[in-house]
Design goal:
heterodimer, A: mainly beta, B: 11 strands
């Protein structure tokens, strides 16, 4: 079936550093989504991307929908301790199936 | 308050004993979905529903059943649970036709099958 390869699996950074993570797939998606999951909770949507090439920001977060529609990246600038959590990319097909990446676990040292 | 609720939050059961995890949303969303989350695998979609009486398989439907008799409820049924269904389960809902595909997730149900 369709798969998303998300990297890196985990990141250990200092507060104030910038972070970058990405997802790639052999399949084309109509929508790319980025979620954050805090411990003990369900994922919360951070950014949604609907068009190839689209670049969207949400505060310190910036995400892009790859031109080929097979990849996306998420950048976090000037990280803070509350950025800690698991970040998931997800691709949505025209048939409303949603495929999630395995997640990037972010650790931020104050 | 707009929310997705799941019950129970924690469940320990034995192999073969039928169980149901309930999911309810109060946002009048057409689209509802069930996921399981396992370490290193992210969230995998089990089943989804685009409206009442309309359901379809996700990536890992084997061993699960769903029903959508009312718009607000989307229960997940394990007819004969097995240990490999031990996992963290999330229900989610969203509008079907919208400029935003924001899925609202429930708090999760941690299931252990012994």
């Amino acid at each position: 079936g369709q798969q998303l390869n998300q990297s890196p699996q985990s990141m250990f950074i200092q507060e104030g550093e910038d972070v970058s993570m990405n997802c790639t797939s052999s399949s084309i998606f109509n929508t790319w989504l980025w979620y954050k999951q805090d411990p003990g909770e369900g994922p919360v949507l951070l950014i949604a991307l609907y068009k190839a090439g689209e670049l969207t920001s949400n505060g310190r977060l910036t995400a892009q929908f790859g031109i080929t529609r097979k990849d996306s990246f998420l950048n976090i600038s000037a990280s803070i301790p509350s950025d800690v959590g698991i970040y998931f990319c997800a691709g949505r097909t025209g048939g409303f199936k949603t495929i999630f990446g395995a997640g990037t676990r972010l650790f931020v040292k104050a | 308050e707009a929310q997705v609720t799941q019950n129970p939050r924690y469940l320990i059961t034995v192999t073969g004993k039928k169980l149901t995890v309930t999911c309810s949303q109060n946002m009048n969303h057409e689209y509802m979905s069930w996921y399981r989350q396992d370490p290193g695998l992210g969230l995998r979609q089990i089943y989804y529903s685009m409206n009442v009486e309309v359901t379809d398989k996700g990536d890992v439907p084997e061993g699960y059943k769903v029903s959508r008799k009312e718009k607000r409820n989307f229960p997940l049924i394990l007819e004969s649970p097995s240990p490999n269904q031990t996992s963290l389960y999330f229900c989610a809902s969203s509008l079907l036709w919208s400029d935003s595909y924001e899925q609202y997730f429930g708090p999760g149900t941690r299931l252990t099958v012994t």
